[in-house]
Automatic annotation (TrEMBL):
Cytochrome c domain location: 190-272
Gene3D superfamilies, sorted: Cytochrome c-like domain
Keywords: Heme, Iron, Metal-binding
Native organism: Flavobacterium cellulosilyticum
Transmembrane residue ranges: none
InterPro entries per the UniProt record, alphabetical: Cyt_c-like_dom, Cyt_c-like_dom_sf
Gene Ontology MF term list: electron transfer activity; heme binding; metal ion binding
Name of this chain's protein: C-type cytochrome
A Pfam short name: Cytochrom_C
Length: 278
């Protein structure tokens, strides 16, 4: 199954080029950027097939999820990617790694940054009580279990927000870095570009608009836009600080200013006039 997808596409491209080369000489396999393909690693599937790699124990001095020193049983995540994906076929500078978590959360980061980072895929917490694999995480009063996998780094500061530490991780995708949702771009009013960019960077990992985006939080545009059932000033305040509205809220406080939140709400109002059936 190694690089099966790439292989498959190559076979298709090959057949295509054989059929088409009579008409179009320039239609060569090499000219088609491999990074435009989506590559997926199903981690549970790889574990079941014993293909995760060699077990090791890692120590994380200041774990950003547990807020203390932690030790995990883990495998090298960078090595796993190198084993499973033929990296000579893609350009890590133009590719992003997307983490799919069980609850629909989908954080992402540039692949080259990830490959340089000495990342590990933790599958068991050494501190876990006998008979269990994980110590529960306490998040805003909710108890969460990190299973099945949690990405950790031995030499990355917990404050470096370029790095993602997803838990409940089930799949890894590689996608082109510049893949953003162009369908959601406010092409009829370019002044809303700031709100669009903020939404792409801060919200789309958890929320969808017209069905495009993450699924941890609710869809915000269809069939009813949040701007249609929230009072505008309260929506702005909610986005700045969700926990001032709801107890045990799962949506994080993202550190946005009121001004930035207003830009997002203006963009969401535009999107409410641009609904697309999913
Ligand atoms: C880590 C995931 C996450 C991120 C990032 C996130 N949200 Fe949320 N959001 C949620 C969840 C989950 C809910 C459902 C309520 C709850 O439990 O917090 C929610 C609820 C909401 C609601 C209320 C929906 C309703 O119908 O009442 C709005 C509006 C909202 N989010 C907007 C945003 C915006 C705008 C951003 C970006 C600035 C954002 N969210 C970023 C997870 C997230």
């Amino acid at each position: 199954m190694k690089t099966a997808k790439i292989h498959h596409v190559f076979v298709c491209l090959f057949i295509f080029s054989v059929f088409s080369c009579n008409q179009k000489k320039e239609q060569k396999v090499e000219t088609i950027p491999i990074a435009q393909m989506e590559i997926k690693l199903d981690l549970l599937d790889l574990q079941a097939k014993n293909r995760l790699g060699k077990d090791t124990v890692v120590t994380i001095i200041n774990d950003p999820v547990y807020h203390k020193e932690k030790k995990y049983k883990a495998v090298s995540a960078t090595q796993l990617i190198k084993n499973e994906i033929d990296l000579t076929k893609i350009d890590p500078q133009k590719t992003k790694i997307v983490f799919e978590c069980m609850d629909g959360y989908q954080p992402e980061m540039p692949l080259d940054l990830f490959l340089k980072s000495n990342a590990f895929l933790a599958f068991q917490d050494i501190d876990a009580p006998n008979g269990s694999k994980w110590v529960p995480i306490n998040k805003n009063g909710n108890k969460m279990i990190a299973e099945p996998f949690y990405i950790v780094y031995e030499s990355v500061s917990e404050n470096d927000s370029r790095y993602k530490w997803p838990y409940n991780l089930v799949r890894i995708y590689l996608e082109p870095l510049n893949k953003s949702y162009k369908e959601l771009y406010p092409s009829k009013n370019k002044k809303l570009e700031t709100g669009y960019t903020l939404f792409q960077n801060q919200c789309i990992t958890c929320h969808s608009l017209n069905g495009l985006g993450g699924t941890m939080g609710p869809e915000l545009n269809y069939p009813k836009s949040v701007t249609e059932y929230w009072k505008e000033n309260e929506l702005v305040d909610y986005i700045v600080n969700p926990s001032s509205f709801r107890n045990k809220v799962k949506m994080p406080t993202l550190g946005l200013s009121k001004q930035q939140s207003q830009e997002i709400v203006d963009y969401l109002k535009y999107m409410s006039d641009n609904k697309n059936k999913i």
